[in-house]
Amino acid sequence: MSFPDIRPRRLRRTPAIRRLVEETRLSPAELILPLFVKEGLTEPRPIGSMPGVVQHSRESLRKVAHEAVSAGIGGLMLFGVPEDANKDETGSAGLDPDGILNVGLRDVIAEVGDATVVMGDLCLDEFTSHGHCGVLAPDGSVDNDATLQVYAEMAVAQAVAGAHVVGPSGMMDGQIGVIRKALDRAGHQDVGVLAYAVKYAGAFYGPFREAVESTLQGDRRQYQQDPPNLREALREVDLDVAEGADMVMVKPALPYLDVIAAVRDRVTVPVAAYQVSGEYSMIEAAAANGWIDRERAILESLTSIKRAGAQITLTYWALEAAHLLRTRY
Ligand code: PBG
Fold first, then answer.
1. Which Gene3D superfamilies does the UniProt entry name for this protein (predicted)?
2. In the structure, which protein residues have their CB atom closer than 6 angstroms to any atom of ligand 1?
3. Closest Cα to atom 11, ligand 1: which residue?
């Protein structure tokens, strides 16, 4: 019988020693809370496929922004949901200073100022009657270059509303460069760009589509990336960094940890990951069935995303995770 000389288990024996040697440690400051604000609501409205997440009214949005600051959350990513009557072919409500997203940005900035980083989703899908992320060509495809012009205006509108950072999520070619130039030309040199550089056309956005009342028929495979491709993701990242992205994002997160790791190795700008609606709802649904320990699964998933290389994570659990982390040890 031979016994081991080296015993890794020594470092796992008590909670204190495990804590001492923990390699990856989450903090609220690296989490971004995505928030939905719905035009015309007087009360927050639950989203059926995302238990615990709501469409906010303007008033409840301000309240949750304040809570996020108290919890030390690193940032907020705002999505606007217009009334159906305000959706049109070109998504003009996204550019309108009185459109719900720009109103929401102004409200949040008025509430929290510079105490956290306030970001706006820069995409047309919530505002178009057809639900695509851009404007359509006569043949029904998304017209890349016509969309860029709209994004340029939308970026400036969000900057004027007070956004610290804009988050272009439409996967149009050249969007980062066009947005950067438009911001600079309008005197918003200090407004940053968090590029959704790598966004896969996967199956995990389902619940989000309910959250924003998406009208999309079909899919986004002509602009978002194909899930099997990693090298293509690096190409997208290189382009976005060259065009001036201040931070790059990989989305979704958990099914794409290899992509997060590869992007992290490749760039020197901060790397973010988006734990998307489907990732959230899977864990919530399993926990509701008693099949999984909810709180442990939340922290384990977030830790994995960070371990893979994400310095920043967008998660619908940001507030709850902040509370869990505070009481963890
Ligand atoms: C597009 C956008 C989407 C998400 C964020 N921005 C939806 C899509 O690409 O269809 C998804 C986020 C999530 O699923 O949590 N504006």
1. Aldolase class I
2. 121, 123, 125, 133, 169, 205, 208, 220, 276-277
3. 205
Prior bond of 252 cis (ω within 30°)? yes
Within a domain: 262: yes
Tokens of 276: 């998307």
Q: Which domain holds residue 295?
A: 24-327
**Percentage of the chain exceeding pLDDT 70:** 100
CA of 97 relative to ligand 1 center, distance in Å? 22
CA of 10 to the centre of ligand 1 (A): 44
Structural domain includes residue 209? yes
Q: Which atom of ligand 1 is nearest to the CA of 275?
A: 15
What is the domain count for the chain?
Answer: 1
Domain of residue 101, CATH code: 3.20.20.70
In a domain, 65, yes or no: yes
pLDDT of residue 18: 97
Tell the residue nearest (CA) to atom 2 of ligand 1: 169
Asked, for residue 188, whether it belongs to a domain, the answer is: yes
Q: Residue 306: is it exposed, middle or buried by C-beta count within 10 angstroms (0-12/13-18/19+)?
A: buried
pLDDT tens per residue across span 18-72: 999 999 999 999 999 999 999 999 999 999 999 999 999 999 999 999 999 999 9
Rounded to two decimals, the pTM is 0.97
